[in-house]
Amino acid sequence: MIDMMEPRHFRTLFISDVHLGSKAAKADFLLDFLRYHEADTIVLVGDIVDGWRLKRSWYWPQVCNDVVQKLLRKARKGTRVVYIPGNHDEFLRDFPGMHFGGIEVVERMMHDGADGKKYLILHGDEFDVVVRNARLLAYLGDWAYDTAIRINILLAAVRRRLGMPYWSFSAWAKLQVKHAVNFIGEFERVVAEEARKSGADGVICGHIHHAVIQDMDGIRYINTGDWVESCTAVAEHEDGTFELITWRTLASTVPALTAIEMRDEGELAPQAA
């Protein structure tokens, strides 16, 4: 049995691209993560709910409710929870400034870091030409991504039975496509430039499911990743430093881990940056 851990407390937690309502979402891992990570402020950086998939086929297991209830409970207990909608939960963009159960909805925000630096926070889909200008192509890309995720689940199950470590086919396939690699680099450059135009020292975003903390020509670029493949979040410490956290273990009990089919059985792997 894995020992219970003391919750870690941060100044701010940034989470994006959970895609609740998608069968590929690792909502159980996020719920587990939220049990062991507290913060004064939690910023949900878009695509928390996957409205696109829910429109096609309704899928909302109890664990999705559990994640929502966990966030609402944190808000009731004093955590500031801010929701910045993305393209998959764009229906919330009709409610800027509204509060739902203590969760505040905003289109984008400027975050004042503990070290005095300012960070522009947005989902990032407005800089994705495909999503912005060709919705049909975006939906086709979404379908292709779903297919890759299904392959990923099958391969993960086979590798686990063979005693092999977890490996993400979908993440690998994405990075093998030259166009995708070029897109990621261009996306990072354009988003960093938007932060510069806004007078910010850095930018925190999601959307492309590629977690990273890096400096780009004097701008700190931070992408929170996702909870479909990488299961990552970004945390701000009390001194203003940022940490990229990868959560790949249900830390409460071994039975809870083995009861969930086709899941990664890796170890906790926090990364500081």
UniProtKB/TrEMBL annotation:
Organism taxonomic ancestry: Bacteria, Pseudomonadati, Pseudomonadota, Alphaproteobacteria, Hyphomicrobiales
InterPro entries linked to this entry: Calcineurin-like_PHP, LpxH-like, Metallo-depent_PP-like
Organism: Rhizobium phaseoli
UniProt KW keywords: Cell inner membrane, Cell membrane, Manganese, Membrane, Metal-binding
UniProt protein name: Calcineurin-like phosphoesterase domain-containing protein
SUPFAM superfamilies the UniProt entry points to: Metallo-dependent phosphatases
Residue ranges occupied by any Calcineurin-like phosphoesterase domain in the UniProt entry: 10-210
Pfam families with a match to the protein in the record: Metallophos
